[in-house]
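DM from R.C. (forwarded with permission)

"hey, sorry to bug you on a friday — could you get me a structure for this? deadline for the figure draft is monday and I only need the backbone to look sensible"
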Amino acid sequence: MWLLAACGSALFAGATAVLAKLGVRETDSDLVTALRTCVVLAFSWLMVFVVGSQGTLAQVTPHSAAFLVLSGLATGASWLCYFRALSLADVSRVAPIDKSSTALTVLLAIALFGETDGLPLKLAGTALLLVGTLLMAAGEKDDACPDGAPCDRRWAVFAVLSAGFAALTSILAKVGVEGVESNLATALRTGVVLVMAWAIVLARGKQRQLRGIDRREAAFIALSGVATGASWLCYYYAIQNGPVSVVVPVDKLSILVTVAFSVLVLRERLGRRELVGLALLVAGTLAIAAA
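My reply, with the result:
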């Protein structure tokens, strides 16, 4: 059962990006982030009550609270950049760069925390991830969008920032929240993201666009939040009942699901370079997991 849950985690995580892409075609990406975070926050607290960690809320120290806020701000920045990138480019280009946060996290963990166990395999996996990311991001035609119009090249900047902030989130959590139950930490951090996302929406006056959101896009935005929450629930169940060494690699392979959905649902095309890049991403992920 735990293996099915791990596969479910990868499936829902992979579907999240495609559902979000369907929700940002006309809707402002900042507004999408704010609306989607409402759904994710509900799932976060659901997980807290499922595991019963709400009783430990009073035990969170000021030191841990400070790092939770910082990691929440980093998460919010990552999500804002990620959905902005999705609004400008194909999922099959943005998602691999976002997944490269795994490589950045590994390098930071080695440099800051001296995590050198299995170092040769970690470095080899990181190299594969970075090369694979570059190949997929470049694509066969990097000068035009699917409709033939020139692409806004800023998507790559936003995608890189998304990965950077995602890696920073992990490091901040590692530094200061070891004493906080992981699901409670996620719920509190998501609350920070919600405040941050809506503050940006209100500061830029984008709340006026709420009434004009297409119902179809609103449904996809909600579904992307549900998919994220469902992925978390499946992942937690799998971690609790199965070997981490198997669950984590299965979950990280959600990139395969994302690319498959982008091809089948969004009709994005993959060239030889992108297929080679995808293969390197998978190999790098498995190498890091095995280290």
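R.C.: lifesaver. Residues 62-88 form the longest helix (27 residues).
me: no worries. Residues 129 and 275 are 13 Å apart (CA to CA).
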